[in-house]
Design a protein that fits this description.
Layout lengths: L23 H21 L6 H18 L6 H9 L7 H22 L6 H12 L13 E2 L5 E3 L5 H16 L6 H15 L6 H15 L11 H6 L1 H14 L2 H38 L7 H8 L4 E2 L1 H6 L5 H13 L4 E5 L2 E5 L1 H8 L1
Antiparallel strand pairs: 1-2, 3-5, 4-5
Helix pairs in contact: 1-11, 2-3, 2-4, 3-4, 4-5, 4-8, 5-8, 6-7, 7-8, 7-11, 10-11, 11-15
Length: about 350
């Protein structure tokens, strides 16, 4: 009997799947992906201030993850909005910034509070991303359609059914298992997207959970492995993989897709971090020629956290009074490291080289 895409998938099987997940091909790819992740973890530790990665790099994930759901903003608007805490930003830019906030809250939950990934966390992420006060879907009628309006999937419906499936997912994520964590990541991501628990924002919440899971499993220290770019570049394979599991239980193809996404993204992210580190090292020599050497590391930590830097960021970092911090930033402009750009009543000091490294 063929799968009926128009009927709510209340029969979505519980986890773990009753098929062999760790096939020979999967285990081979697990080794490659774990090696790439370990290398990325080591590279990330080269940065003295990992806040650079959590915030500035994380904004790119927020932007690209939102684009998958047709919420589009520009890099310029995004980093300017980041500098202004969203004030004056258009609605789509604000929504991307909410994603960044959700990612940060999730990181705090896992890293500092050492809390497990639970439905309560899922609800919190959804509420921050969507700025909503509701949670798990209660009303029927949700369906996923293609651009032509044809139904491609109808998720489970009924709050009780959805919560039961989320409870099963919680247990799968948090209870001991002999499955490799990266294989579990692939299964977790499929199941969350198949449950589709919220009225909106499920894709974004699911992609944040990917990152948090890697941190909870100690495969990364900070939230820097963002799969959204890979998903956009291989969107057809992504959706075929999801539907292949749903309709034909093609788990191996799906798990391999996710493992390749982890491998590819880890390598690209490592290259990006090394490029940022090289930029910062080159900037240090120039900065030391125009600034007090003792202040250079702290000033560059701020400048390489905010591509659109403002005087108040240096003040907040305890680097001096407003006139002193202004003098520091203008000295970096004179050294060719920053570009000053007045916008209305605000002066931005733009780190073009850092900006380009982030968005390329």
């Amino acid at each position: 009997m063929s799968f009926d895409r128009a009927i709510p998938y209340n029969a979505l099987p519980a986890l773990p799947p009753v098929v062999e997940l760790e096939t020979k091909a999967v285990l081979k790819q697990v080794v490659v992906a774990r090696t790439a992740l370990a290398e990325l973890k080591g590279i990330a530790r080269l940065l003295p201030n990992q806040g650079v990665l959590i915030q500035a790099v994380g904004l790119q994930e927020a932007k690209i993850s939102s684009e998958i759901e047709n919420i589009v903003t520009t890099d310029d608007a995004l980093y300017r909005g980041f500098a202004n805490d969203g004030e004056g930003s258009d609605p789509k830019t604000k929504e991307v910034l909410h994603y960044k906030d959700a990612l940060w809250q999730g990181y705090q939950w896992v890293k500092q509070d050492n809390m497990p990934l639970t439905t309560r966390l899922f609800d919190t992420l959804y509420q921050v991303v969507k700025q909503a006060d509701d949670g798990v879907r209660r009303l029927p009628g949700t369906r996923l359609a293609n651009p032509a309006g044809q139904t491609i999937y109808t998720p489970p419906e009924g709050e009780g059914v959805i919560r039961d499936k989320l409870g099963n997912l919680e247990r799968f994520i948090n209870e001991p298992s002999e499955l490799d964590p990266l294989v579990r990541l692939a299964v977790m991501h499929y199941q969350f997207e198949a449950i589709h628990p919220f009225p909106d924002g499920n894709g974004r919440v699911g992609r944040i959970l990917n990152i948090l899971y890697l941190i909870s499993e100690k495969l990364l220290d900070v939230p820097i492995l963002y799969l959204s770019r890979y998903i956009i570049e291989h969107k057809g394979d992504y959706y075929r993989g999801l539907s292949g599991v749903t309709e034909d239980a093609k788990w191996e193809a799906w798990v391999l897709y996710m493992l390749r996404a982890v491998e590819s993204t880890a390598r690209l992210t490592g290259e990006r971090i090394l490029a940022i580190l090289e930029l910062k090292q080159a900037a240090t020599a120039k900065a030391e020629s125009v600034l007090p050497k003792v202040q250079v590391p702290a000033i560059l930590d701020v400048v390489f956290r905010h591509p659109y830097c403002k005087v108040k960021f240096l003040e907040q970092a305890g680097l001096g009074s407003r006139p002193t911090c202004t003098k520091y930033l203008r000295a970096l402009v004179g050294a060719g490291l920053l570009r000053e750009q007045p916008v209305w009543r605000e002066n931005y000091f733009i780190n073009d080289a850092f900006f380009d490294a982030l968005v390329k």
